[in-house]
Specification:
This protein is of the alpha+beta class and 495 residues long. The protein has 3 domains: 181 residues, Heat Shock Protein 90 (2-Layer Sandwich), CATH 3.30.565; 80 residues, no CATH class; 179 residues, no CATH class. The chain is 28% helix and 22% strand. It contains 10 helices and 18 strands. It has an 8-stranded mixed beta sheet with strand order 5-4-3-6-2-1-7-8. Helix 7 crosses helix 10. The longest helix is centred in the middle third of the chain and has 50 residues. It is elongated and about 115 Å long.
Length: 495
Amino acid sequence: MQSPQEFIPVTIDKSHITTIGERLYAESIEFVRELVNNAYDADADHVEIVMTDDSIEIQDNGSGMDMDGFRQYFNIGSPQKLSNPKSPVHHRDRIGMFGIGKFASLSACKRFEVISKRGDFVARVTFDKEQWEKATGAWQLPFERLDADFRKQNGTTVILMGLDRRFDPRDIEAKIIEGTPIKAPHFKVRINNHTVTPRSLTGHKVSVIDGTAFGPVTGEIVILPETAALTKDLGIEVKVKQVTVRRELFGMETWGRAMARVTGEVNADFLQVTSDRTGFLKDSEEYRSFIEVMNRIMEDVKAFLQKLTARKEGKRVSRALKDALQRIYRSLSLNPDLSPFGPLPIGEVAKSGGDAASTKNEGPGAGENVKPAETAPDTGAVKPLEKKRKKKPRVRRLTPNAIIKKMKFGETGVQCVVDSFGEDGPEAFSEETTIYINRDHPLYKRESGKVETHTLNLARLITQEIALMKDPRNPRQAFERQSKLLKDAFIGHNN
């Protein structure tokens, strides 16, 4: 004979409720995010936070709660927001999912009160951790009906008392900016009469708009100036329903110092978040699709960052090269016998600025257009211009980042090219009257770190080649010429 079916009840100790509140979130300050987001879900236009040393009050003007609303509020793990994902007034995408966020406040205080009004209904519920755990067997909280005029308008107030520590209003503000939909229309948050506003970042902005099978990925990535590089909170904010879940680096950890210049946010509402809203379900198809999109986006960001870096580096090299050429120009004016280009014509004086050394930054294949000046073979005198052009001397093909400047000395002169010729390439070399300087050479990299050594090193390499142009068969004499030119370029006459 078959015995009757028996059942085992499922129970949970009351202390676990406080444990959930205290341990669910990595930081006790997370309670602010949860309570403000509850106000947002309730169609609040305004949230007022008042902080003192031992209490924090968060008041909103949302829809408020009636008796059923209070029962739902304290229904742990309620799926109510999942079954009603849109708010009734502003049609907002509701942020809350599991109905346990309000217990985050237990990580910051010993006691909290919830006061809410909807129409003529006004009531207060008090949650005291010690009293809750002492009351054996009873799963209920003190509930008090209040007069209808206790609150003037609909909404909810949560008061945290007996704080475990003091909270800095600036930290609270930072958490609100990051963890709540502060940019949403018709939604304002104030802390001690100060309005919280979204962060405004300056820099080069890269718009993000891409699609997956589960929904769009949108947002904006900002490449900050070097002077504004981040020292903390590195990475891109990943938001779900306008709320930051976590920051991700998306491979930027291999970018070196450039990583600190990249920030911003991306929104992907289709991502599944963990119950504490601090991470994602990474083994889901949604997350894998999101990562594929972000990998493509970050490749574009990296290329754009490298382009900006190369542009800035080009300007820095251009300034140093111009300074070096101007100094050499004046030194050659003082020592015309050391010039392979012949003396200055009578009446010409050493010029500064672009006349002495004008800049020309070329694009791909720039070497095709470089036209080195011609000099007489032995005397160093300038050749008279001929009506028929002679064959152009061979010139190397340059990279798009090549920096080209010309130093005109009388009717002729040299062109200087700073470009990449590989770490194993020569430090400097000449072809006809074009001087090439290798920016990949280890010595160049070392000396280019500071403005003073950068200019001096460029001048050293240029005068080396000029001295060899004067008499390539006598290196010792060329070295002495170079020493004289450098001394007059940097000591005494040209400081």
